[in-house]
Design a protein that fits this description.
Radius of gyration: 19 Å
Shape: globular
Oligomer: single chain
Strand content: under 5%
Helix content: over 70%
Number of strands: 0
Number of helices: 6
Largest sheet: none
């Protein structure tokens, strides 16, 4: 697979995760709250959870736009926005592991760590402008430069 393909696949994965997570939190906040890693934190707040679900969906929209256009500035912006959310999330949970078992804490850190490592790796791929060079688009206008015979 080429750099461009890896980048697109990674963006699709991040967007998919945000769509699923956002819909889950927005539509079923009480069920999301019952998840062991979430319920060990301060009291349930439906408003805050629904806001978080909406925010996840907003990030998914930006990621989907990046996947669709594969425009370099949009891809870079989407990945930096993802990291702006995922890094503080990882740091917070790393500082609040005490209510969890060692295995549960390790699982949480692995999951949240992947949420930082993957977009950081994609950002590294996107830093190379060659990841955005694809085949020349076909110009179907009469007399277009790439007119097929």
């Amino acid at each position: 697979m080429k750099r461009h393909d890896w980048l697109r696949a990674g963006l699709k994965l991040l967007a998919g995760v945000q769509v699923l997570l956002g819909l889950w939190i927005l539509l079923l906040p009480d069920i999301f709250w019952k998840w062991r890693w979430v319920s060990s934190l301060p009291p349930y707040n439906e408003h805050l959870l629904r806001d978080l679900g909406g925010t996840n969906l907003a990030l998914a929209v930006v990621l989907c736009a990046a996947v669709t256009t594969m425009e370099r500035r949009l891809v870079l912006t989407a990945l930096v926005a993802y990291l702006a959310a995922s890094v503080p999330h990882l740091v917070f949970h790393a500082q609040h592991l005490e209510p969890l078992s060692a295995a549960s804490g390790a699982g949480l850190m692995a999951l949240l760590g992947a949420g930082v490592v993957l977009p950081a790796a994609l950002l590294w791929l996107a830093a190379d402008a060659s990841a955005f060079r694809g085949p020349t688009p076909v110009d179907y206008r009469p007399g277009g430069a790439n007119k097929s015979s």
